[in-house]
Amino acid sequence: MSLNRRSLLKASGIGASTLAMPYFFHRSAAAAEPLRVGVLFSLTGGLSIIEKSLSDATMMAITEINASGGVMGRPIEAVLEDGASDPKTYNEKASKLVIGDKIVTVFGSYTSASRKAVLPVFEKHDAMYFYPTYYEGFECSRNVVYTGAVPNQQLSNFIPWIVKTLGKKKFFIVGSNYIYPREMAKVCKILMKQNGATYVADEYLELGDSEWGSMVNKIKNSGCDAVLSNVVGDSVVAFYREYKNQGLTHETLPICATVTSEIEIAAMGPEYAVGSYTSFPYFMAIDTPRNKAFVQRYRSFVKDPKAVTHHALESSYFQVFLWKQAVEKAGKATADAVREGVRGQEFDSPGGHVTVDPNNLHTYLTPRIAQWQADGQGKIVNAYPHPIEPLPYVAYGETDSNLFCTRNGLDVAKLRKS
Q1: Please, what is the angle between helix 5-12 and helix 48-67, to 10°?
Q2: What is the pLDDT of residue 365?
Q3: What pLDDT, on the 0 to 100 scale, is given for residue 49?
Q4: Segment 396-405, tens digit of pLDDT
Q5: For residue 275, with 0-12 CB atoms within 10 Å meaning exposed, 13-18 middle and 19 or more buried, which class applies?
Q6: CA distance 163 to 156
Q7: What is the pLDDT of residues 278-287, one digit of tens each?
Q8: pLDDT reported for residue 3
Q9: How confident is residue 31, by pLDDT bands cut at 50, 70 and 90?
Q10: Which of 16, 71, 107, 180 is 20 to 30 Å from the Cα of 32, by its Cα?
Q11: What is the reported pTM?
């Protein structure tokens, strides 16, 4: 079953008026020259249902920073571009921002496909890209600051918990057919073996596929006792609905997901996900004054009292503050200054304390697991007591005592030995 864009926007708490929101920023009363940054997300196309919220969170952070005096007394001026849910367009817009507009730092992207499309632009012209989405790892760039989770921050806690707490040992791995789900599946298999579990299948449908009848039937007849889902985008909605339509329940055969967030739950209807699980560092239900205030500010900013927050949105927000602190530490906003200034930067984000790893420019985050409830919120059932080190090459043997990605770049010799 497919869901049209208008329905998804309504279910996700993103109104049409938000899509038309004009760009603005608060200019300080002083005539200080603004610091220009790029904001590059999909404002149109199929991915806009999620990426518009990332753009909004970025603009919210910029607005708050400007309201409190800017960066070194200078207001931030955001140049917004639309990736249009298309990797080729992403590359063109990144080139415009970096080469044409001579902008040094850009915040953007949701999918790995769009990140891979813009990466050559930033590496060739030595500009900085802040990427907020949980991703598959297997990347080490001096031109990217990665603020979303990597596999060891989503799966290294999740698989052992499913085996030991839920007592599930036979997994059906299912995903969308592109790099993120396939790389996550590699980590899943390693962790399943380490924890005495097995997988009975590793299956994929194309990104955006809405015909899940045959796949769900395979799951029913596979003999598995849990489903590990790396399904992405609109397909999440179709998958969960077909799951219930065929009589499967999360109480007996739970979907345990790495992608399903508050925005997909709102789009499908909470009743289809009740009892299933997701592993993320951030959930809207985190019960702290800081997070509750953040949710209310976000809803006020987008003028929607029902808007939801989620992991990539939260990372989009706090990474702007990490950039601000890096510039202020260095005293300037050049690429070298941001790259060196951001190493080791810390921030108390809505989801907890975060730190940029000084070696690999990924972010220390706190792994959490939530079970989805009837109100569309995740009840946090497991959380690490502290943030953990990001290991982007964990599937290839990287450990905290044997780093593949350092400030000197990727150690290719270690990777070849893995």
Answers
A1: 40
A2: 98
A3: 82
A4: 899 999 999 9
A5: middle
A6: 12
A7: 999 999 999 9
A8: 39
A9: low
A10: 107
A11: 0.90
Report the mean per-residue pLDDT for the chain.
92
Please give the order of strands across the beta sheet that includes 76-82. Answer: 76-82, 35-41, 105-108, 128-131, 144-146
Q: Where in the chain is the domain with CATH 3.40.50.2300?
A: 5-150+288-364, 152-285+368-417
Q: CB–CB of 176/231 below 8 Å?
A: yes
Name residue, tokens 């409830």.
Answer: 373
Going by pLDDT thresholds of 50, 70 and 90, the confidence category of residue 107 is: very high
Question: What is the CATH code for 152-285+368-417?
Answer: 3.40.50.2300
SS (HEC) of the chain: CCCCHHHHHHHHCCCHHHHCCCCCCCCCCCCCCCEEEEEEECCCCCCHHHHHHHHHHHHHHHHHHHHCCCECCECEEEEEEECCCCHHHHHHHHHHHHHHCCCCEEEECCCHHHHHHHHHHHHHCCCEEEECCCCCCCCCCCCEEECCCCHHHCCCCHHHHHHHHCCCCEEEEEEECCHHHHHHHHHHHHHHHHCCCEEEEEEEECCCCCCCHHHHHHHHCCCCCEEEEECCCHHHHHHHHHHHHCCCCCCCCCEEECCCCHHHHHHHCHHHCCCCEEEECCCCCCCCHHHHHHHHHHHHHHCCCCCCCCHHHHHHHHHHHHHHHHHHHHCCCCHHHHHHHHCCCEEEECCEEEEECCCCCCEEECCEEEEECCCCCEEEEEECCCCECCCCCHHHCCECCECCEECCEECHHHHHHC
How far, in Å, CA of 105 to CA of 144, rounded?
Answer: 10
**pLDDT beyond 70 at 68:** yes
- Residue 338's identity, in one-letter code, is V
